[in-house]
């Protein structure tokens, strides 16, 4: 499946901030994590990630530091700043609203099967 360019671009900032909320990382590892998290459906390029990381750094959402890797090459490590954590919290709220709306207008799963939002809670005895 090909994910549309606009959707990939819209999700890029919250995805990177979310990955850095897991812990500091460097470019190649972030690219691998995106591929892993998407089950291979998203494969970002260097040309997409590094401009985004530079923008997030300019905005104060991430901080960076050059370090030598075990392979001997210097790597720029990125970590989430306090401002970035606040931006991530705001992004999560916004994406939660968008996800909730999509759940309502697309009650069927991606495979077309109708899913009940109450079924898992009923099975757990929470409702």
TrEMBL record:
Domain annotation Transcription regulator PadR N-terminal: ranges: 16-90
SUPFAM superfamilies assigned: Winged helix' DNA-binding domain
InterPro entries: Metal_resp_DNA-bind_regulator, Tscrpt_reg_PadR_N, WH-like_DNA-bd_sf, WH_DNA-bd_sf
Location of region: Disordered: 108-127
Source superkingdom: Bacteria
The protein's name: Helix-turn-helix transcriptional regulator
One matching Pfam family: PadR
């Amino acid at each position: 499946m090909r994910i549309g360019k606009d959707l990939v671009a819209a999700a890029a900032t919250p995805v990177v901030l979310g990955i850095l909320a897991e812990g500091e990382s460097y470019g190649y590892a972030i690219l691998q994590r995106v591929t892993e998290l998407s089950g291979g459906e998203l494969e970002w390029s260097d040309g997409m990630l590094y401009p985004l990381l530079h923008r997030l750094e300019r905005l104060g959402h991430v901080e960076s530091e050059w370090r030598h890797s075990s392979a001997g090459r210097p790597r720029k490590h990125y970590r989430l700043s306090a401002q970035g954590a606040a931006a991530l919290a705001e992004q999560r709220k916004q994406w939660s609203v968008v996800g909730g709306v999509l759940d309502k207008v697309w009650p069927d799963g991606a495979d077309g099967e109708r899913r009940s939002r109450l079924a898992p809670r009923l099975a757990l005895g929470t409702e």
